[in-house]
Write a structure and sequence with these properties.
Layout lengths: L1 E12 L2 E13 L4 E5 L6 H8 L7 E6 L2 E2 L5 H8 L2 E5 L10 H11 L4 H14 L15 H13 L5 E5 L7 H18 L2 E6 L2 H7 L2 E6 L2 E7 H6 L4 H10 L2 H14 L4 E8 L7 H9 L2 E12 L2 E11 L2 H13 L3 E6 L2
Parallel strand pairs: 3-8, 3-9, 6-7, 7-8
Antiparallel strand pairs: 1-2, 1-4, 4-5, 9-10, 11-13, 11-14, 12-13
Bound molecules: adenosine-5'-triphosphate.
Amino acid sequence: MIEVKNVTKIFKTKNGELTAVDHVNLSIQKGEIFGIIGYSGAGKSTLIRLLNGLEKPTSGSVIVNGLEISSIKGKELRLARQKISMIFQHFNLLWSRTVAENIAFPLEIAGVPKEEREKRVHELIELVGLSGRADAYPSQLSGGQKQRVGIARALANNPEVLLCDEATSALDPETTDSILRLLSDINQRLGLTIVLITHEMHVIRKICHRVAVMEAGRVVEQGDVLEVFQNPQAEITKNFVMQVSDSRESKESIEHILKNYPSGKLVKLIFVGNTTERPIISYLIKEFQLDINILHGNISQTVNGSYGTLIVQLDGDSENVEKALEKLKSMNIKTEVITND
Ligand SMILES: Nc1ncnc2c1ncn2[C@@H]1O[C@H](COP(=O)(O)OP(=O)(O)OP(=O)(O)O)[C@@H](O)[C@H]1O
């Protein structure tokens, strides 16, 4: 659906050249929600603007739905852009127009006749959950409602791709969740391909299927969200994953745990997918006659399944402790022994 091939974008500034996007390759499938995460200045906005032709690459190419966006211009680009729409952090609504008039705006530009326009606006208002607010002005709406108008407007011309530029960064956590649920729902109902940029890992965890991590213009890691959460490679990815697990906290508490549980073995178990749903601890207790203390744990959901960690103290016959560890490995549960007694 979207192919980014060896794309570099260099800006000429008064202090010299600045490489905002550096040899990026991405392949985004039709119907997926693809997240791009990075800290401020990583090059995310530039990359997303390359996807709809608002920026041209210095080298490389961007192909969306078979069309080479990076090389077309004028009317051809304008038409292509109707199929690649965008929502923004600060909504970019027209303040003197009502909800219905904002949503109708792209339809007017596309030359859709009045009657058809009104019908479509009505459908879109229902779709994004704004029934009854058609005649309200943006200033009368909450942040979440404003973003719903932004989403309805972006969907007006039946796009194939929706680009989201920090779409929930100005919203509180609960409103963020409701907007993420709406995006996920639209993705499933309409089969719409969504590319979002964010600096918040919980946005990636909650709705993305795959993720690319950007640092200094480069994609340093990309893959299935569950795999990246389970096994982050780059240092920056590990930091992002820490945002949504409490491993930082658990690191601090490990010393305390070691002091207080000196016998047996302290083991961190890493569960993924359906292993999180099995009664493993009770099985180990029965099978290997162990005492097991659960000291710390968390489980998180991603679109592709759940993952979690558990820090346990395994106490009992040392041979049986070893057997239990072997058993865990055979059940596809990663184990890390924190210390030996
Ligand atoms: N039009 C431009 N001219 C010059 N430099 C630019 C331009 N646009 C972006 N940059 C620079 O390119 C780099 C990447 O910026 P970009 O906005 O893409 O990053 P970002 O990851 O989206 O960060 P943020 O979330 O802060 O916008 C930054 O150093 C920025 O200053």
